[in-house]
Design a protein that fits this description.
Keywords: Kinase, Transferase
Helix content: 25-40%
GO molecular function: ATP binding; protein serine/threonine kinase activity
GO biological process, one term: signal transduction
Distance between the termini: 40 Å
CATH superfamily of the largest domain: Transferase(Phosphotransferase) domain 1
Strand content: 15-25%
Protein name: Protein kinase domain-containing protein
Order of helices and strands: HEEEEHEEHHEEEEHHHHHHHH
Number of strands: 10
CATH architecture of the largest domain: Orthogonal Bundle
Structural class: alpha+beta
Pfam family, one: Pkinase
Largest sheet: 6 strands, antiparallel
Shape: globular
Amino acid sequence: MVASPHRNSTNDLLMPLLGKRIRLGDHVYKMCDSIATGPFSSVFLVEKDGIPYAMKVESQSKCLRPVLKLDHAVLRALGHQSGFPSLTSAGRTENFKYVVMQLVGPDLSMLLEFAPQQRFTSSTVYKIALQTLDRLRVLHEAGWLNRDVKAQNFAVGLGEESSIVYMLDFGLTRKYLEHNGSRSLLRPHGPSVGTFPYAPLASLGFCDQSPIDDIEGWLYMIVHLLKGGLPWHNSKRALNLPKVREWKMYCRRPGGKHYLFAGIPKGWADIFDVIVNTAPHETPDYNKIANMVLSIARNELIDLTAPFDWQVNPVLRSLVRLGPLSCGELTRIPMSSMAATPFTDQILLNSIGSPLESY
């Protein structure tokens, strides 16, 4: 999304500095390029000592919705975890705030746009499902809710890290655990936040959200990747919040559930049952859901050791900075795509026949 100049003054400040060096705190960065521009913040490609980074900035005084502090807080807590960009530096100048972080590749939505028929293979979707579920587990255990689960907020690593799916953009996150680890009390009402094709029913009903609501949004994202659309969100339907809310209520009934999961393995409807039967105060059973995904993959003979689509498709390979595919390389690509965490490492073992232990 491109913002008009009067809505995002950081572009006015920083675009003239492209190609120049700027000092931010104890670091000197070269301003290389503009990566993305939104109504509240901008992202620039910067370089220090020959290493590229992403720098997210927002205006000090004219930002309509300051959210950079949330990116900073989450990455400060989780940037050392695989699947979350590492935090390099953060601070503020007289005119703008900034966070400098690890540079990652394109988001899943962009990769999908360039994929054949704008679809991923089943193997890639199931591995995306397992990795993104684990990212939510880590985020929740750190005390945060995502509240905007969608393909645009997950990106893949570059080059040798192209087998890792990263969680991005924490502008709608909310702390739900107190300092002592106890849960904050659910508010009687909450804002409707997120991208409502994927937003959970709680959000569309203006109820406060809990971790299981992120998992509901995760399921809608995965179903969309599997089917190429959702009953309430495709190229033939205009978005309408009340109608989407009605659809998500209807999908909790047998007829609606059948419609939502038509054309994909029955096991996904079973996962939906686990989600909707988890109370807001309960912790999602990530391990059970992951095992259910793996069970579907086994039943459907889906090879979870196959490379991701962007590791073999020539166009997608270029987007994640992998070189041209050489003859015979398909059989030699390292199949380490699920080794992002002990949890997902164990998931991969299970996918080829080993029992999954509780983590």
